[in-house]
Structure formats: C-alpha cells, structure tokens
UniProtKB/TrEMBL annotation:
The keyword Oxidoreductase applies. SUPFAM superfamilies: NAD(P)-binding Rossmann-fold domains. It comes from Amycolatopsis camponoti. It is an enzyme of class 1 (oxidoreductase). The lineage of its organism: Bacteria, Bacillati, Actinomycetota, Actinomycetes, Pseudonocardiales. This is 3-oxoacyl-[acyl-carrier protein] reductase (EC).
Amino acid sequence: MSIALVAGGTSGIGLATARRLHEQGYDVHVTGRGKERLDDVAVSDPSLTGHQADGGDAGAMAALAESLGMVDVLVVSLSGAEGMGPIASLDLAMLRRAFDAKFWAHLTTIQAVLPHLAADGSITLLGAISAHAAMPGTAGIGALNAAVEALVKPLAVELAPRRVNAVSPGVVDTAWWSGFPTEVREGFFAQTAASIPSRRVATADDVAEVVALAATNRNLSGTILEADGGARLVSVG
C-alpha cells in the first residue's frame, strides 16, 4: 500500500486532506506537535496513524520518514497563527516566529523526508491567497506565503521526476481564525462571502479536495492551484 505523510495533519486542511487520501487507498500518517490533538485524531479517525513530531525538527521528521520505509506522498500543511498586522507597527519578532512556524518548517520537513521519498513521489505545499492579493495588513504574512510558494517551481525541476506543487487557499473556515473575536471573524466571513465570486467561505474539505488532486495527479508539477473561490479577482478586506 502506498504511504502518505501529512505534516500538520491533526486539524483543518491537513486533517481533511489526510481523510481524503485515506479514502483513495493510502496508508496515511499524520504529524502534530501536541499530544491532545493527536489523541483526538486517534478517536475521530482511527484509520489514520498519528505521530508526535514538530515539522521544524529535522531529526524527528527524518526519523519518522525512515521508520515508514518509503513515502509516496508528502503533504506539508504546517502553519502558525501569527504574521498579520499593519507594516508601521508590525512586530518583526512575531513575523520571524511565523516564518519559523511555516516557511522554515516546510523547508525542514522537505529536506528531512526527501531521502525517503519515492522516486515517483510527490510533495504538496500549502501557501495562501495573501501571497498574491493586496490586502492591507498582510505584507508580513503575504511575504511568508510567497516564500513557501516560491519553492514550487525550482523544486519541481530540481527533484524531477518527483512532482512538486502547492495549493493557495483563500479564506477558509478553520481553527486558524479562532484567535479572532467571534464578531470580528463572523463579520469578515460575511464580508468575504458577499464579495468573492463563489459567494461562500470555503471549508477545509473544499481545499483538501484540491490538495489531494495536486498530490496524486501524475500530470501536475510545478503548479500552484489557487483554491480561493475567485477572491484573487476582487478586493477583499
């Protein structure tokens, strides 16, 4: 059975992707930093195998990949809750933490798993619409997601015939927004839904469907799939 490893697969888009890959017949392994979320996944999704490992820890990720023998599909769905704010007052120490949590963790995971990635395997990364849009307050997080997405094309050529792609979601109703006050979050979701062509805020499973496609379609490489409901076409925020 082919093996899929979803780094950051205990919630949100990562967990939804892990479920879809399992439905497609993969032996799916997910990583998470916290034992509590892994315990939750063990109860809700016993078909998935959880591992406590930090994507930014090269040793832990390499040891995990080695224990799996050969990884056919690597999905890197690592993120943090920081990075937004107006440039005049943007906390640069916070932004560095955000880069550590996402960009450096993506890069570390790729490097650690690569020796154990099948010769015809795939790597799929998670960026975000902030890499392409021009929304106030997103210069920091936009640079972060642009850095992740900038890995795709050179790695697709460098690592061929392995395939490398990314998915760039728009506004998605996940726990990422839990740090915002309820009224702020709901107001922004309503504003977004009213202004984008799809007229709805995406679910984690909406995006996971696209991630699974990028990870498994053998004719996709060097591609960033924009799963944003058309948000890139209009002004949001």
